[in-house]
C-alpha cells in the first residue's frame, strides 16, 4: 500500500498548484496508518452496533488505535505506530514545514498542528521536546517513552531470571 500511495502522490503532483503539492496532509495514508485507521473504525462500529443492544463491546480501546492522554483526560487516536516513517525519504526531502507562531507549534499557525500530525525534523521546532508545544508531538513522545520503559522492564525481568 505504501508503494501505491507514493506513486499516487507523485502522479498527482502535476495536477496541483505548487503551494499545495509539497504538504504532508496531501499524502494518502501509509500502510501502518491505514491499519491504525481500520482498527479505530472497527472499534467505533462495534460501539455503535452495541448501542442497539445496550451492552458495551468487550474490546479495549487502547488495543484498537487509541491512547489515553493523562494531561487532557481523553482518548487520542494513534495515527502511526512509534518509529514509523510518514513518507519515503525522497518525499521528505521535498517537504519543509514552517511555523509562524511566537511559541513554536502551539497554534494552528503551525502546519503540523493544523494537520493533526506530530512535528518532524523539518519543522521550525525540529520536534525537540524542549521547544515544541504541538500536542501531537508531545503525545507521540509520551507513547515512545512508555514503550521504552515497558521494554526496559521486560529486559530487567529477563535478566533476573538468570
From TrEMBL:
<protein>
    <recommendedName>
        <fullName>Tesmin/TSO1-like CXC domain-containing protein</fullName>
    </recommendedName>
</protein>
<feature type="domain" description="Tesmin/TSO1-like CXC">
    <location>
        <begin position="94"/>
        <end position="138"/>
    </location>
</feature>
<dbReference type="InterPro" id="IPR033467">
    <property type="entry name" value="Tesmin/TSO1-like_CXC"/>
</dbReference>
Amino acid at each position: 500500500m505504501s508503494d501505491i500511495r507514493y506513486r499516487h502522490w507523485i502522479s498527482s503532483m502535476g495536477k496541483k498548484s505548487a503551494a499545495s503539492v509539497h504538504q504532508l496532509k496531501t499524502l494518502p495514508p501509509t500502510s501502518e496508518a491505514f491499519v491504525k485507521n481500520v482498527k479505530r473504525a472497527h472499534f467505533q462500529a462495534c460501539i455503535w452496533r452495541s448501542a442497539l443492544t445496550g451492552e458495551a463491546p468487550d474490546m479495549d480501546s487502547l488495543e484498537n488505535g487509541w491512547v489515553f492522554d493523562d494531561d487532557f483526560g481523553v482518548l487520542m487516536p494513534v495515527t502511526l505506530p512509534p518509529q514509523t516513517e510518514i513518507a519515503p525519504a525522497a518525499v521528505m526531502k521535498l517537504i519543509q514545514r514552517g511555523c509562524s507562531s511566537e511559541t513554536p507549534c502551539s497554534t494552528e499557525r503551525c502546519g503540523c498542528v493544523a494537520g493533526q500530525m506530530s512535528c518532524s525534523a523539518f519543522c521550525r521546532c525540529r520536534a525537540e521536546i524542549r521547544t515544541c508545544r504541538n500536542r501531537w508531538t508531545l503525545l507521540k513522545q509520551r507513547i515512545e517513552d512508555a514503550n521504552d520503559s515497558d521494554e526496559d522492564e521486560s529486559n530487567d525481568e529477563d535478566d533476573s531470571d538468570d
